[in-house]
Amino acid sequence: MVAILSLIFFNLLAIASSDQFPGGLSTSNDWSEQAFNHPATKASSIEKQFFGVGNSFFKQSWVEFPSSTIGRDGLGPTYNAVACASCHVKDGRGIAFDGNLVNLSLLFRLSKKAGDDYIPHPEYGDQFQPFGITTVQGEGDVEVEFETIHGQYPDGETFELVKPLFEFKNFKLSPFDEWVLVSPRVAPHLIGLGFIEAIPSDQIIQREDPLDSDGDGISGKANWVFDLTQNQMTLGRFGWKAGQPSLRQQNAAAFNGDMGLTSEVFPEQNCPLVQTDCWQAPTPSDLEVSPKVLDRVTLYTQLIAVPKARNYGSSKFINGKRIFTELHCTQCHQPHFQTGGSHPIQALRNQLIWPYSDFLLHDMGEGLADHRPDGLADGQEWRTPPLWGLGLIETVNRHSRLLHDGRARNIEEAILWHDGEAFTHKKAFMNLNKKDRQILIDFIKSI
Ligand code: HEC
Ligand code: HEC
Ligand SMILES: [Ca+2]
Ligand SMILES: [Ca+2]
Ligand SMILES: [Ca+2]
Questions:
Q1: Is residue 47 part of a domain?
Q2: Model confidence, pTM
Q3: Is residue 180 included in any domain, yes or no?
């Protein structure tokens, strides 16, 4: 009996610790259009209830103040979107482009170079908000054109990449000059973020090698950013340049920067001083997002489960995983982490997770550069994005665009854009035969 029980126990452990279950014991089981919309299965029933409440705030549209719908007014004065879900559609990846139009889910962070310093743009602040409420003008419009880049694999097969070139127009104030730095960023899919928050900092920091002292060509670097709640510099984990230290601060920044909503973390309206119409617009006397709403939305983003791997155990999966390892993609896309024991949400503690990211910054070369520093990240550095769930974006969002500005039209193009520290990895991918390239791509689609 003891033997049987321990056998069962051993099997359970084996199951939960396999890469078939990238979100640990809380991995979800749905590969449909709703794949990114489930609570961690091990969350408590009250947490699952709050998850539902958070989800409804995440989806709801905010309106301008004053309005009869108290509790969801205060939008703007300038904004990018009226709901979190407008950009994070079904909690998936934003679409970036509609032909030559820039979709609202692609936003632009701004700075201005002032001597050796980088400061928020004096007229537009640190983000470009195209829209304004009735009495307030939006900051302008953005259009895009694509430059086509032709390339060829050693086996003779050709490919084309497209690089977006943005044109800002219809400016509210001065047009951009040569000192303005623009960082385009598309809305990422939002699975498994609580687990990322629960990874002990030292596990991420110990993989740093900023001067590449071990000479392997990889120089991962942590971003250190100001945590407004803890009032100290903290490891950055979230966003394309790891610019946010926690989900609560990330979400409060999204409420404020993307929707114009104040909270206890960002109590000021998002209005640069020179935009008089913006700071003269009527605003409610209370915070527009109450601490409770911020908490529910934060819990929601902490508890979105990671779906189970697809094609698990097939020979293609096994071969793809071997190629991924042999090409050393794992040097940055670190397969697994063990979460710590101290996150306030129990379901997130002590889980073996498979995000395929080291959460560090890497120089990805000139082609992907935005030339805009962000914390310790320089203009060529990006945080390794987790690869879990990538293959489901097509089902959830009906497109397969990837990378920080959505330029890659599929996984193959995303790999071909790798350069800088990942140049040799890209070359090794190009040197594979067509069949093995496809096996690698199918593996990434499965994890
Ligand atoms: C205008 C589009 C837009 C809206 C609206 C928006 N987001 Fe985002 N979201 C983004 C982009 C773009 C990023 C990446 C930001 C960066 O790199 O700095 C992001 C990043 C995030 C992240 C971090 C994801 C990661 O993988 O690190 C979370 C969490 C998040 N958003 C939650 C929210 C919440 C909650 C709301 C509503 C309060 C919201 N977002 C509204 C576009 C949007
Ligand atoms: C030097 C670190 C590094 C190495 C090595 C590396 N990557 Fe990446 N990878 C990144 C970074 C950083 C990004 C994000 C770049 C951006 O958005 O501009 C990325 C993005 C991706 C994406 C798109 C992810 C998304 O969410 O849009 C895929 C797919 C990918 N890598 C696969 C691979 C594969 C396959 C290999 C091995 C051939 C590899 N990577 C090697 C750092 C690396
Ligand atoms: Ca407001
Ligand atoms: Ca602005
Ligand atoms: Ca190194």
A1: no
A2: 0.96
A3: no
